[in-house]
UniProtKB/TrEMBL annotation:
SUPFAM superfamilies: DNA/RNA polymerases (SSF56672). DNA-dependent RNA polymerase catalyzes the transcription of DNA into RNA using the four ribonucleoside triphosphates as substrates. It comes from Penicillium arizonense. Residues 244-271 form a coiled coil. Its EC number is 2.7.7.6. The lineage of its organism: Eukaryota, Fungi, Dikarya, Ascomycota, Pezizomycotina. Residues 258-578 form the DNA-directed RNA polymerase N-terminal domain. PROSITE patterns: RNA_POL_PHAGE_1, RNA_POL_PHAGE_2. This is DNA-directed RNA polymerase. GO terms for cellular component: mitochondrial DNA-directed RNA polymerase complex. It comes from the Eukaryota. It catalyses: RNA(n) + a ribonucleoside 5'-triphosphate = RNA(n+1) + diphosphate.
Length: 1275
């Protein structure tokens, strides 16, 4: 259980201090760079058979690993393994002697000792490549070496040796163990693998898909079923083994396993097949320029043909560059990235490039320019993912179980601890996930940009234009992509745009090829067993979504997962992934009908939005009128572009729903760094918008029962917006609207359309249809329902804060306290705001008189919801201003600005008053983060000391700025959730790095663990991230408990879903899980962890100069030069002496005089320190004193939308990751700026003190167990 007494010894604590400055090798013929680049280069060089290049890279990589290290041995084993595979595949007999020389001469000379894998590789080579007596002599010699090393069992337990190898090894080198293994293999070895050549065809069911209108009628652009995803179109090709004798259910499971692997592996293959067909058609018919055929497949097919030729030409130039002395920059670049292009055949590489680039534009908006850096990185990442998938597909199926069985018996007979340990090691190795070298950001950008450059060269689009002279239409072939620059925040960014004709075609015809990656699965996802092992069957997925290039978080996850760690978290993600789904065919049919109208129906974006352009002012109009017209024009264009982007995305969702309309599918999940779960398929999932959720049904059904029928009625009321009343009133509301509900279910778009008035119209329509279906039965309670019923938290972040603080008033506001009616925190804040405005109006405030009684719940809701997640005051004013445009349109623009500031002040005041306990905890969290980010570890201090001493010994100049301790703050905020997930905040000030590509120079962020932390982001993100980690814990606990109770479960962060008949039971589980979690002293546990994790750090504190302590510290420094580095070194020495076990050392430490000792000697305490209110403008209820300067801060809504803490609130669009690659400057770190008031900084002085944290805020006396009686806790 995670709630036992907190054991600090179980914490995962890693030393993130770099030992030395990383060495970067000068590049020669593409060999060089830092360790990450060279490891990626090595991996690809081995794949393409460039073994001389690989050998050179291994020698250079030896500088990063000490002699005898496991890492360096792994590199040699990788080299040997790939070389042997190449030899066997190509029958390269001439490579045997060089390989043996490497193993028998070069490795011993380099101090590399072989292990079981090395011997297994050499035995595999000898058995497969040598013949006659030479083979037997060599095999015996290698086996004897392995016996001397005591590695016989370990070698046989590796999949490097195939079953036939083990049989041959047993014949040549007889031993008891080998004989036993052979015996077991003879008994059942033939049953351990399926021969796919013996598969027979199994006919698939006939497809009864509804016909969707064609392109000309504004349909989805899918003219027939064959235009859909190839996996489903080719369903009849799925085959089963001829000797299969399982049940029909087992046959279906096996068939779906095969289909799933094909679905993941064949996305590019299906595109290639389609484009080859298109190409054949074109060649047969000739290029008919007069035809109006604009199908995107035809365009993409031509691009593919041309790009293949361009890539092949590039590969020839790469070979030429590698074979000759470098005489140009282009040749040098080709030596650098060319080897990567060689790792995939030109056909697939061209298809991958086109699919990826078009997918990026389709997700982001075809008519929007996208940074080249984002496209290049995404393309580089997809390229690597494809190589990983390829290696997974071709990977051996694992060790024959009969071999492991024999080895277990052999080792068990020894009856020794050593035997048991060796068996455990064998099992661990058999189950060990493959480790793939991940390319660094520089490699991804270089490779991606080179591919984009080639597509840029060959991509054309036919456009008909009128000849100005002849007035005849002629066909032109302009470039399909344009490259332009844009100035953004003072930085020049390179953008790629697609031609408007491409935009027009894609709007009408979304290409199914772009959907063929990361789709919903047709079989249950692979359970999570490792940091990169789970989810999809072929494509590699990460258990934790980390910022691109992040080093520390993956290291902590890997350490935490040792010895089967994070078991409950992984089980919870597996529960979410194992939930089966179906498409709601009835809702889908209505949605297709709505789509085909091209109109805005139920939040579906219109095809041609009616956005009339205002008349242009006359030429004599004043400048203000011209600017106003230009602004309105921009707003209209932005709105039009927004509609287009949304419609493209919805088009993808409908295409996928159409393909899966007869399928049971699954949604694999992983989590972000806080533990919040997200589905991996980006388009169709339960976290999508209303139209997406309305299409989803559970695969399994359950009878409604009396309780379920009641909850189905309540669901309709909730979705209609009638969700603030009591449960009985909601149920009655549905019965009162029954006539409208039945009309909606029966007539859809042809009836009175009551469902379109709901807040969530498509989900409401689905619920109306479900209720209609139930009421058609003689006994509605016996209806088997598949509809998910939602139970949502009441401003869940505030629920956690109220529980943490024991705050009764806050608990009542967010439904933790039992009541007859639900409390609504948004309405509560709205009432508070209106009462305050009424009072101000009575006192003569003119603005208050205008607003009196007019502020609604919807105006305050977004600000209340995001306040707990770190929105700034000025961000809140912008949020309010947007709401005022919709709900108080009569206000002038000037009144709107004043009113937004005024209302935001009232909202913040209400929150500070209503949630006082949360306010105190938020400040404690922020204060703790401030101390952590302004502290140095003993290891960092030791490194600074060594660097300073080295500099003094070799230079006469002053110490460089790099040795300023304030430039060395690297301690990030790390904590452990109640379920054992180590959370590492990734916010650092990344170092920019320029990368020259064929299109432009790109600035990339080069992340590493020794980057200085971004104090502002660390401080402001910690409270919301901590709360998110708690709601994630609550969700995982609930998921596991529901699974154990036999309930179907899904979740969208703080919205939990199950069958209607199981809602009451799920609610009990949710309440119990919340009480269990918060019964632990969570903040006390966090304080204890911080003490262990950071207790040895030294903190740069400040004290007021005017205080007695400040005067004493200043007197200590008077007359002598002092520096932060010198005093840091001195204070660290004092702490080492005081903590020594030697009494003499302790006495010496007590005798030392430092600023900290003076402060302590005078009775200084934490209260005497000068501490800023570290959360600043993001604290609950905080209003900045200087509104004018705050308003100038360049922050959109005050929210960092790239931060996962906010992404969950704003949507789940899977966009290219731009955080790593950004041409923009870093936001100003407000906590690190010099203060604006002259002399305010000089009013304090600094000193190094041992890091201690403030006492945890006192907890209120509210009884947490009362939640168990709260009907509206989740409702």
């Amino acid at each position: 259980m995670p709630y036992d007494a907190f054991d600090t010894s179980s914490l995962v604590i890693l030393d993130s201090t770099p030992s030395t400055q990383a060495k970067i090798f000068r590049r020669r013929h593409g060999v060089g760079g830092d360790e990450t680049e060279m490891r990626a280069n090595l991996e690809v060089s081995l794949k393409v058979g460039q073994f001389e290049r690989a050998a050179s890279l291994i020698n250079r990589l030896g500088h990063y690993h000490p002699v005898g290290s496991q890492e360096y041995l792994n590199l040699h084993n990788r080299y040997l393994k790939e070389m042997v595979s190449y030899m066997i595949l190509n029958r390269a007999q001439e490579m045997v002697l060089p390989l043996q020389k490497w193993f028998e001469v070069d490795m011993p000379a380099g101090g590399v000792t072989p292990n079981e894998e090395t011997f297994a590789i050499m035995l595999h080579m000898a058995i497969r490549m040598l013949h006659g007596t030479k083979r037997e002599r060599t095999v015996r010699r290698y086996w004897e070496l392995a016996q001397k090393a005591g590695l016989e069992e370990e070698i046989v337990g590796l999949e490097v040796l195939e079953d036939s190898d083990v049989g041959e090894l047993s014949r040549i080198c007889s031993s008891d163990m080998l004989d036993l293994v052979s015996q077991y293999m003879r008994m059942d070895g033939s049953l351990n693998a399926l021969d796919e050549s013996q598969f027979e065809r199994v006919p698939a069911a006939m497809d009864d898909a509804p016909v969707i209108q064609s392109v000309d009628q504004k349909g989805l652009g899918m003219s027939s079923l064959k235009e859909s995803l190839s996996l489903f179109a080719d369903h009849s090709e799925i085959q089963l083994p001829s000797n299969f004798e399982g049940t029909e259910e087992e046959a279906r499971t096996l068939r779906n396993e095969i289909r799933q692997k094909r679905l993941e592996a064949d996305g590019i293959e299906s595109a290639l097949a389609r484009w080859r067909t298109e190409n054949a058609k074109r060649q047969k018919a000739g290029l008919n320029a007069s035809s109006d055929e604009k199908k995107l497949n035809s365009v993409l097919s031509q691009w593919h043909t041309d790009l293949v030729a361009r890539i092949k030409r590039e590969l020839e130039l790469v070979e030429e560059a590698l074979a000759n002395p470098i005489t140009s920059i282009e040749q040098r670049d080709r030596c650098d990235y060319g080897v990567y292009l060689q790792s995939l055949d030109a056909d697939r590489l061209a298809a991958l490039t086109i699919i990826t680039v078009m997918s990026v534009f389709s997700r982001t908006g075809m008519d929007k320019g996208i940074k080249l850096s984002a496209i290049a990185t995404t393309l580089g990442k997809e390229f690597q993912d494809e190589l990983i998938a390829k290696s997974v597909i071709t990977k051996n199926k694992g060790v024959n179980p009969s071999r492991l069985k024999a080895l277990k018996e052999t080792l068990a007979n020894r009856k020794t601890k050593d035997g048991r340990m060796r068996w455990k090691s064998l099992v661990d190795k058999a189950n060990e996930e493959d480790s793939h070298v991940h390319w660094g950001s520089r490699v991804q950008v270089r490779v991606g940009a080179s591919l984009m450059s080639m597509l840029f060269d060959v991509g054309k689009i036919s456009v008909w234009v009128e000849d100005p002279v002849t007035k005849k239409k002629v066909c032109t072939m302009p470039p399909a992509f344009q490259h332009a620059y844009q100035i953004h925040y003072g930085k020049r960014s390179g953008l790629i745009h697609v031609h408007p004709e491409i935009v027009r075609i894609v709007t009408k015809e979304p290409p199914s090829e772009l959907l063929a990656r990361h789709l919903p699965m047709v079989t249950k996802p692979k359970p999570w067993t490792g940091p990169r092992n789970g989810g999809y069957k072929v494509y590699e997925s990460s258990l934790v979504r980390s910022t691109a290039g992040e080093i520390l978080q993956p290291a902590y996850i890997k350490a935490a997962m040792k010895d089967d760690g994070m078991k409950e978290i992984r089980a919870g993600l597996d529960v979410l992934g194992a939930t089966g789904w179906r498409i709601n065919r009835s809702v889908f049919d209505v949605m297709v009908q709505a789509w085909n109208t091209g109109e805005a129906v139920g939040k579906i974006a219109p095809l041609d939005p009616d956005l009339p352009i205002p008349p242009q002012p006359s030429s004599d109009a004043d400048l203000a009128e011209q600017h106003q017209w230009s602004r309105k024009l921009r707003e209209i264009e932005n709105l039009r572009s927004g509609y287009h982007s949304i419609r493209c995305f919805q088009n993808f969702q409908l295409e996928i729903a159409r393909a899966y309309r007869n399928e049971v599918f699954f949604l694999p999940h992983n989590m972000d760094f806080r533990g919040r779960a997200y589905p991996l398929p980006p388009y169709l999932n339960q976290m999508g918008a209303d139209n997406c959720r309305g299409l989803l049904l559970f695969d399994t059904g359950k009878e409604l029962g009396v309780s379920g029928l009641r909850w189905l009625k309540i669901q309709i009321a909730n979705l209609s917006g009638f969700d603030k009343a009591s449960m009985s009133e909601r149920e009655q509301y549905t019965m009162d609207k029954l006539d409208d509900i039945l009309d909606s279910a029966n007539n859809g778009l042809n009836g009175r359309k009551w469902w379109l008035k709901a807040e969530d119209p498509w989900q409401c329509l689905a619920a109306c249809m479900e209720l209609r279906n139930a009421l058609q039965l003689p006994d509605p309670t016996t209806y088997v329902s598949h509809l998910p019923i939602h139970q949502d938290g009441s401003c869940n972040g505030l629920q956690h804060y109220a529980a943490l603080g024991g705050d009764k008033a806050g608990a009542q506001q967010v439904n933790l306290e039992p009541s007859d009616r639900p409390s609504d925190v948004y309405s509560g804040v709205c009432d508070f705001v209106n009462e305050s405005i009424t009072q101000d109006a009575a006192n003569g405030n003119g603005l208050a008189k205008v607003l009196d009684g007019r502020v609604t719940r919807k105006i305050v809701k977004q600000t209340v919801m995001t306040n707990v997640y770190g929105v700034t005051f000025m961000g809140a004013t912008r949020q309010v201003k947007k709401q005022l445009v919709d709900y108080l349109p009569d206000l002038s623009s000037i009144e709107r600005v004043s009113a937004s500031v005024y209302i935001a002040q009232k909202i913040f005041g209400a929150l500070g008053t209503m949630f006082n306990g949360a306010h105190d905890i938020q400040y404690w969290l922020g204060d703790s983060a401030l101390r952590i980010t302004q502290s140095l570890t003993p290891e960092q201090i030791e490194q600074l000391t060594e660097q300073a001493l080295t500099h003094q010994a070799t230079h006469r100049s002053a110490l460089p700025r790099s040795l300023d301790p304030e430039k060395s703050f690297q301690s990030t905020v790390i904590w452990t959730t109640p379920l054992g997930l180590p959370v590492v905040q990734p916010y650092r000030t990344r170092k920019a790095r320029r990368v020259q590509t064929t299109l432009q120079e790109i600035s990339i962020m080069d992340p590493s663990a020794d980057d200085i932390v971004s104090k502002r982001k660390q401080l402001q993100a910690f409270p919301p991230n901590f709360i998110h980690s708690l709601d994630a814990t609550h969700m995982i606990l609930s998921a596991n408990a529901c699974h154990e109770a036999g309930l179907t479960f899904s979740a969208v962060h703080d919205s939990f879903w199950t069958h209607a008949g199981d809602v009451d039971q799920m609610n009990e589980i949710l309440r119990d899980a919340f009480v269990r979690m918060h019964s632990d002293d969570i903040i006390g546990r966090l304080a204890a962890e911080f003490k262990v994790r950071y207790g040895k750090n030294l903190f740069l504190a400040r004290i007021p100069l005017a205080s007695k302590h400040g005067k004493a510290v200043r007197a200590l420094r008077k007359g002598g030069k002092s520096s932060k580095l010198a005093e840091l070194i001195q204070e660290q020495r004092r702490q080492n002496l005081l903590n020594s076990e030697d009494p003499e050392d302790q006495a010496e430490g007590r005798a030392m005089v430092t600023a900290a000792s003076v402060f302590e000697g005078m009775g200084g305490t934490d209260a005497d320190l000068s501490m800023t209110k570290s959360l600043g403008a993001t604290a609950m209820g905080h209003v900045p004193e200087n509104l004018e300067s705050a308003e100038r801060a360049p922050m959109a809504d005050g929210i960092d939308t790239s931060d996962p803490a906010i992404q969950g609130l704003l949507g789940n669009m899977d966009l290219p990751d731009g955080k790593l690659l950004d041409d923009e400057p870093e936001p100003v770190d407000e906590t690190e700026k010099a203060p604006t008031k002259r002399g305010s900084r000089s009013a304090t002085t600094w000193m190094w003190v041992p890091l201690k944290f403030r006492p945890v805020p006192a907890k209120g006396d509210w009884d947490l167990t009362r939640i168990r009686k709260s009907e509206y806790f989740f409702s």
